[in-house]
């Protein structure tokens, strides 16, 4: 058996956590997590399963009462009552302790219940909302994971069915401690590993019959347009498709079509030279047939008569078949330059072994195989049930190109975190059918840039293309800017990639994870936290006619928030409508946020030499930048670098301080020299009007002081009045140095309501007289409440009033 397939698991529970009868076994894994087993034969399973790997939680603090007829178990989080018989609604119940609902916080075996959902296998052919499977958390305080049909992992790494029938349930009674539940889920089922750094950039993907020449031309055009990509996805037609009908269809294939790609090695190397990684699409359902270049080698390995051209059937239940394919197909092609595989399984969950899902087999063993020789493993495939978070990245499938599909994807992505699945990759822009709508394509791309994986994709229709220049100019320009932004954000995204691994917190989280007791957090399903510094509320509906703005209902938690695109400052603690033109959507940084970016957008695979920190005023903040080699799994051994950063804000003294501490850890991973640039957003100097020139002179010594390794440093300091931002370019420094920036005579910028109102009214397609009247009212207003009252009395269009209300009350 392949040695790479053997994995480390700890499936045996602490005996002190177990209460067992003749036909039942109850294991208290934590105070909120209970394993419930029932077997008529009295045989219970201690091995790891496809989903569950580790049950060796520490001793749990619980008490119990037992009589001949009943068992009761108590922890701080739940109360279990069991009649010691076959599980039944009358005989087994568990209550999540706490005031979560009037009647819905008690689970009775077999009865339906409400949870906050998880995710689904695929969005293939979805045109809007689809049903989701269960997650591990519920607003009523509990959920349930059924592992009864999961196959077992043998010690040698292969799988086998259970030898006896058993109910094997996991009750999650964590109340509203959602993050704690998720952390324990990642221990029970295995951690979510880090994906390579290159995967955080833009992916170009299209189901289209490219040639080597046409693909290179396209990449050169992207370079000319300054549109960066880090992953090339070659769909279907890289291999032979038009084959002799005696072999079947050409959907499955492993042989390069040399009419299209005459020199695959050179082509793959050409892409690598452009700092791109490559994945090929494979549909493995038809096995290996005689027309394939690799057929004879695989046939001989499998004992198939190759001279008679006998087909080699796809058999996920046979480890020899998988090993032969790895040895003779996948490994040689990886030596050619294929970096990882897109395992496009579309053929259902059946195999000759009951309960064995071929998709799970592909995901599990391809992932393990891709990590041989110390390489950081990665696959690209569909979701195959709980535990699939161990095999990133997820391919969500072929959606219909409609607004309804777009509107469902933010919710779908965030909610997947409830089953630990944090790395969905969507066909951004939609895959097939539907309609061409430039506005919709633009909004979809905006969401894609602020989603876990940014992958443009489309069908082979000549008209369904995602190149920005195929849309109208304003949309194209916005797309280009957002795609560049994605690459600039990689330092932030990669740090969140590490957070997902180390802390069990996916990049995209629903609002209720941080605010479980706030009802509003459950009322904004398409809103989410994007890492620990940003909040996103994508616009997923057409813009309002004549006003030329899109609308989203958003909830801002208490505190101060800044829109990173418009600069508008918001007071939180409220639900509100937010409106944006096509150039952006609401992405908000909390006061005190520190967001690390880079200006090296063409080569994101390495730790950058040019770093840019974006800092927002109004509160203290912190961030720890994470970096490693991005190529291996040495991060699991502690080989990485962390750079702590702290921001202190003193509004009483009009002072602030940013400290970039010396990096901690394996500093050899960093460039020897690094250029730091820090931009303090939405600030104004506390100076007289005469001193507020757009030059360094507007910031005398007492205003900005830069210290590197404790010594004074000049740097390049500039203030942008239009953007209200103070930029400090520190130049090239040793990477190991500590940096301090002290600001004096500085304060938060207040919203210029008249300026925001003018910008909106200027582009709105409404009556000039009405524009003049509204603008004059805004300029003359001394009291916002009176201004709103005046506007309401004008009986304006409700959406026009909505836009003005947002501006005035932000």
The secondary-structure class comes to alpha+beta
Could you list the spans in which at least 5 consecutive residues all have pLDDT below 50?
Answer: 688-697
Beta-strand content estimate: 15-25%
- Most strands sheet: 7 strands, antiparallel
Amount of helix = 10-25%
Mean residue pLDDT? 95
Overall morphology: globular
Question: How many separate helices?
Answer: 14
- Number of strand segments: 42
Radius of gyration: 29 Å
Molecular structure report:
- The chain is α+β, with helices and mostly antiparallel strands.
- 22% of the residues lie in helices and 23% in strands.
- Strands 31, 32, 33, 34, 37, 38 and 41 form a seven-stranded antiparallel sheet that branches. Strands 17-16-15-14-13-20 form a six-stranded parallel sheet.
- Strand 2 and strand 3 form a beta hairpin.
- Helix 8 packs parallel to helix 9 and helix 13 packs antiparallel against helix 14 (798-809).
- The relative contact order is 0.08.
- The model is unreliable at 688-697 (pLDDT under 50).
């Amino acid at each position: 058996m392949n040695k790479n397939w053997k994995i480390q698991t700890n499936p045996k529970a602490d005996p002190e956590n177990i209460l067992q009868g003749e036909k039942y076994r109850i294991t208290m894994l934590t105070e909120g997590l209970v394993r419930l087993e029932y077997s008529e034969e009295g045989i219970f399973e201690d091995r790891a399963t496809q989903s569950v790997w580790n049950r060796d939680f520490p001793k749990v603090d619980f008490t119990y009462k037992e009589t001949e007829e009943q068992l009761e178990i108590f922890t701080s989080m739940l109360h279990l009552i069991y009649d010691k018989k076959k599980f039944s609604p009358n005989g087994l119940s568990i209550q999540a302790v706490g005031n979560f609902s009037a009647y819905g916080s008690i689970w009775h075996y077999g009865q339906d219940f409400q949870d906050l959902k998880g995710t689904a296998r695929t969005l293939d052919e979805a045109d809007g909302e689809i049903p989701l499977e269960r997650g591990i958390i519920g607003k009523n305080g509990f959920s349930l994971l059924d592992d009864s049909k999961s196959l077992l992992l043998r010690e040698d790494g292969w799988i086998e069915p259970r030898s006896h029938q058993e109910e094997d349930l996991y009750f999650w009674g964590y109340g509203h401690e959602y993050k704690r539940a998720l952390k324990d889920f990642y221990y029970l089922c295995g951690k979510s590993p880090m994906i390579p750094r290159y995967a955080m950039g833009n992916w170009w993907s299209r189901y289209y019959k490219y040639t080597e020449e046409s693909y290179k031309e396209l990449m050169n055009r992207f370079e000319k347009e300054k549109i960066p990509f880090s992953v090339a996805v070659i769909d279907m037609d890289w291999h032979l498709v038009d084959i002799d009908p005696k072999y079947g269809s050409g959907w499955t294939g492993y042989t390069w079509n040399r009419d299209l790609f005459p020199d695959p090695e050179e082509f793959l190397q050409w892409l690598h030279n452009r700092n791109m990684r490559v994945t090929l699409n494979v549909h493995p359902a038809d096995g290996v047939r005689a027309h394939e270049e690799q057929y004879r080698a695989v046939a001989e390995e499998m004992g198939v008569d190759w001279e008679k051209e006998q087909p080699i059937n796809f058999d996920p239940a046979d480890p020899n078949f998988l090993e032969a394919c790895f040895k003779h197909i996948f490994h040689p092609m990886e030596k050619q330059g294929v970096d990882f595989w897109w395992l496009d399984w579309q053929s259902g969950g059946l195999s000759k072994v009951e309960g064995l899902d071929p998709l799970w087999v592909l995901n599990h063993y391809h992932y393990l195989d891709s990590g041989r020789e110390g390489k950081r493993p990665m696959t690209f495939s569909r979701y195959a049930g709980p535990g699939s978070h161990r095999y990133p990245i997820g391919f969500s499938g072929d959606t219909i190109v409609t607004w309804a599909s777009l509107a469902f994807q933010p919710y779908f992505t965030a909610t997947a975190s409830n089953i630990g699945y944090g790395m969905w990759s969507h066909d951004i822009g939609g895959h097939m059918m539907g309609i061409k709508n430039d506005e919709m394509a633009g909004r979809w791309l905006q969401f894609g840039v602020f989603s876990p994986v940014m992958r443009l994709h489309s069908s082979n229709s000549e008209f369904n293309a995602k190149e920005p220049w195929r849309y109208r100019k304003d949309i194209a320009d916005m797309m280009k800017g957002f795609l560049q932004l994605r690459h600039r954000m990689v330092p932030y995204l990669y740090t969140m990639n590490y957070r997902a691994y180390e802390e069990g917190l996916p990049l995209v989280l629903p609002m209720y994870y941080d605010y479980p007791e706030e009802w509003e957090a459950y009322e904004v399903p398409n809103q989410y936290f994007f890492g620990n510094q940003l909040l996103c509320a994508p616009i997923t509906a057409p813009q309002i006619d004549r006003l030329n703005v899109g609308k989203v209902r958003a909830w801002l938690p208490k505190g101060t928030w800044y829109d990173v695109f418009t600069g508008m400052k918001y007071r939180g603690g409220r639900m509100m409508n937010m409106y944006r033109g096509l150039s952006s959507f609401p992405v908000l940084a909390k006061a005190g946020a520190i967001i690390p970016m880079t200006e090296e957008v063409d080569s994101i695979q390495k730790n950058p030499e040019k770093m840019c920190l974006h800092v927002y005023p109004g509160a203290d903040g912190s961030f720890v930048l994470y970096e490693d080699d991005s190529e291996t799994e040495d991060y699991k051994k502690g080989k990485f670098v962390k750079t702590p950063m702290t921001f202190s804000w003193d509004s009483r003294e009009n002072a602030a301080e940013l400290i970039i501490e010396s990096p901690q850890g394996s500093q050899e991973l960093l460039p020897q020299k690094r250029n730091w640039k820090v931009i303090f957003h939405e600030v104004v100097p506390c100076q007289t009007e005469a001193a507020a020139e757009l030059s360094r002179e507007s910031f005398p010594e007492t205003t900005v002081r830069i210290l590197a390794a404790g010594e004074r440093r000049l740097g390049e300091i500039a203030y942008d009045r239009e953007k209200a931002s103070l930029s400090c370019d520190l130049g090239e420094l040793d990477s190991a140095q500590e940096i301090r920036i002290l600001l004096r005579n500085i304060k938060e910028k207040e919203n210029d309501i008249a300026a925001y109102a003018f910008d909106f009214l200027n582009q709105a397609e409404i009556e000039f007289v009405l524009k003049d009247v509204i603008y004059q009212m805004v300029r003359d207003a001394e009291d916002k409440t009176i201004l709103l009252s005046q506007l309401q009395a004008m009986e304006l269009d409700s959406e026009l009033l909505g836009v003005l209300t947002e501006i005035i009350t932000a």
